[in-house]
Each structure stands twice: as C-alpha cells, then as structure tokens.
Amino acid sequence: MMKKAVEVRDLVVHRGGREVLKGIGFTIEGGSVTGLLGPSGCGKSTLMRALVGVQQLTSGSVQAFGEEAGTSALRSRIGYVTQAASVYDDLTVAENLTFFAKVLGVSGDQVDESIEAVDLGNHADQVVGRLSGGQRSRASLAVALLGSPDLLVLDEPTVGLDPVLRRDLWKLFHEIADRGAAVFVSSHVMDEADRCDRLMLMREGVIIADDTPDGIREKTRTDDIESAFLSLVEQTGDAA
Amino acid sequence: MNPRITFAVATRVLTQIRRDRRTAAMLLVLPCLLMTLLWWMFVDSPVQFFDRLGPGLLALFPFIIMFLVTSVTTLRERSSGTLERLLAMPMGKFDFLLGYAIAFGVVAAIQSALAVALSVGLLGLEVQGPVWLLTVVAIADAVLGSALGLFVSAFATTEFQAVQFMPAFVVPQILLCGLFIPREQLPPVLEAISNVLPLSYATDAMQTLSTTSATGEVWQDVAIVTAFALAALGLGAATLRRRTP
Asked: Is B243 in contact with A54 (Cβ distance < 8 A)?
C-alpha cells in the first residue's frame, strides 16, 4: 500500500470571522476517486484549498504523501483546479497549456495529451476568452492534468457540462485513479454521487457521512444520496 | 529562482500583450504622439522649452504606463485565480515578479527606442550625452514603474482602486521630480521628500543627459532607480502569499 495521499486531522479554518471548517479529519488513499458532496457554501472549496496548501489554517494539520500540504516538494505532485476557470483568457488553449507545462517543467507532448484528454483538440488554437463556460473549465482542467500528478484536487470540474462530456470526464478521473493517483472531486450535484468510489457528504463545515455510495444508502435506508443527505441532516438535528 | 520559469512568465506576458493589438499599438505609438504634441506646443516659443521638458517626459512615459499596466494585470492575476494556481505550482515568487519585470522591460525598451528616435531624429531634441543611454534610463524607469505597480496591486481589491493608485503614488512624484521647477528651488521639506522619491532620480538622469556629455552622474542615478525598483520588487514578493485567509 502506498503512503496515504492525504491525511487531514482536526482541521479548523476561519474565513472572514466565520468558522468554515469545524474540526475535520479523514484520509484518502491513492487509486480511488473520492467525491466531496455538499451544498454551496458548506466549506468544500476551503477544504480543497487546504489540501493544496493555499489556505491559512486556524488549527489542525493537512498532510499529503507524508509532508505538510503546500511544501515545495509537493507542488509538482498535486494538480489543482479552482472553481472558476483559472486560465488566461487572452491566450489560446495551447498557449495556456504550454505556459503551465514550462512552469511545471513538463515536456511538450504532455500538452497535446492533456488537451485531448479534455476533448479540446478542435479548439486548441482558439483564444480561451471566446470559448464557452464549459470549454473554459475544461481548459483549466487540462492544466491540472499536466505532469500526471499523484493527487488531483478538482473543485466542481463538471458544472454546466453536457451529460455526455460529464460521463467522459468521470471516466477520465477513474482512469487517472487506476494509474494509482488519488482523485478528490467536489460537486454540489447529488446525482454525481454514484460516480465516486467513496463519498464524503459535507454540511456547514462538518463531514456528516463518509462511506461508499452504497454504504451511505444502506445505513440511511434510502434509495438515493439526496434522501440520504436529508435523512442524515434530520438525524443530527440541526446541531451542526 | 528558476530561469526556465522566469522566462516562461516573461514570454507569456509578451504573448498576451501582442495578442491585445490595441494595447500593443497604444504602448508603442502614444509616447511618440505625446512627444510630438509637446514639440508642437513650443514650436513658436522663443525659449527652448522642448529641450527642457522633453527629456523629463521621456522618463515619465515608461514609468506611468508600466505602473498602470502592471497594477491592472497583476490584479487580474490575483482575482482570476491564475496567481493562486501558479503559487500552488513550483513557481517562485521572484520568478513571477522578474518575469513580469523582464516582459515590461522589453516593451519599455521598444517604446522608448521609438520615442527617443523620433524626439532626437525628427523633432530635434538636443541631447549632449549618448542617445542610447536615454533608452537605458527609460528601461530602468519602466522596470521601476512595473515594480511599484506590482507592489500597490496587492492593496487593491478592484481595478477601480488599482487605477486610483496612480494619482496617489505617481502624480506627487511627477510634481516633485524637478520637471516643473528645479528640485533645489522647492521648499526644504518638499525637497527632502523629493530626495526619497525614485522618479526624481529618473528625471535627474534624463536632464543630466541632455545638458552634459559626462555619464558618471547618469549611471549613479540609474543605479538609484534600479535599487528602488529592486526594493519595490522585494516588497511585491512579500505581498504574494501562497497561503491566503
């Protein structure tokens, strides 16, 4: 078994005077796709920023591959996609990828591979600003794939995408996981739950369930994750 | 620091400028037009105001323009998430800042080469010192403008605010740099203030160049301007935080 990809312990984060993460702990192993599901504003993005090491922590610890998140040795091993497409609007898809590849010190053929992986081959020479929202977020995703990272942290990568493409991307995430990487994907769409090997449900800064999708349904005796979520919230009362 | 990454940033910024045709054209043509306007203003005047004001203005353009362009573009990097992404990658802060400084330095070199060529060649600006040194001073000014722009962009949360820093940081320097009145004729307090403002040395360098052919003082001024630019880059680096609240 490889070293734990991610190990989070008692993580508390305050943002703008509000406690956004309220003592979170979990581990992620390589080789699987873990979904982080919860409504907007529940702290998903903050948790992802903490994993990548760009979030100031109030207390607790976040480690990746046995090192403190954000240390320089980790920076080339983690692929990160923010919620908003973080690519340069005035450059073409290929120019964006080439730039980030140079920053990562990754060879040029990986640029084409990444572009193909997100199905933007036909748009490689188009300026990102003129692409649709979905295409832009795919360009942003392509950047995260560069250098075959060991941990992929994806903040809502499938929002607003056409169902066919969404299916293809989830297939891609599983292929990446099969190669041994840990893939951590957030979504606020409950129907994406079944595409994950493991599911973490989050609400108001707390993880209220952490199991396989089937496991969660069994435990809550429900048929779908949305009902499971509701049932879990009712069980805990509104203590959170 | 990594030359590969620094160079990647510089090339990327230059590609972005080249892609934005209107900005590229304005960067190159505007200083020439403004120099022509200045020359035209004094064409019937008996006093050689063009020779007096021209060199100082050649120092001002790259400074102001690069200050504005850099503060807006870095703010865009901060707000679009690309900066966060870069800082989550193996990107050193100085790679980022130097990349920008190099790119804008190149733009400034072309910009001032054109403005200097026009002023000296066509408009008859009298320069005693070596003409190429005018361009060197202009590049130092541009890098200074970029460095200050990078620094202040950390304190702006919107592009409106970023633009407002120009009257706050730049106009006082223009007023006190010796362009309107020799600095030693300023009230003592203002003269003391002008002594610690970088643009004063940039203007000094240009004025020395136009009046004498000795270059020692000019290089000294260039060194001071460069030191200010490096200090501002250092402060800029301190404002680039990998971890944000």
From this structure: yes
CB contact under 8 A, B19 and A104: no
Closest CA to B141 of B217, B191, B198: B198
Q: Across chain B, what does the average pLDDT equal?
A: 89
Whether the predicted pLDDT of A222 surpasses 70: yes
What is the residue whose two structure tokens read 């003082």? B217
* Both structure tokens of A43: 């702290």
Q: pLDDT band at residue A240, thresholds of 50, 70 and 90?
A: very low
For B42, B44, B187, B203, the CA distances from B36, given in Å and listed in that order, are: 10, 14, 33, 19
Distance CA A199, CA A118 (A): 24
Tell me the three state secondary structure of residue A40: coil
* Ordered DSSP codes for A103-122: HHT--THHHHHHHHHTT-GG
Bridge partner list, B199: none
Contact predicate A114/A147, CB 8 Å: no
CA dist B95 and A14 (Å) reads: 31
Report the residue of B2, B243, B244 to disrupt the A interface, i.e. the one with the largest count of A CBs within 10 Å.
Answer: B243
- Cα of A51 to nearest chain B Cα, Å: 11
8 A C-beta contact, residue A13 and residue A58 = yes
- At residue A237, the pLDDT reads 60
For range A206-215, the mean pLDDT: 91
- Sign of the dihedral defined by the CA atoms of residues B71, B76, B82, B87, in that order: positive
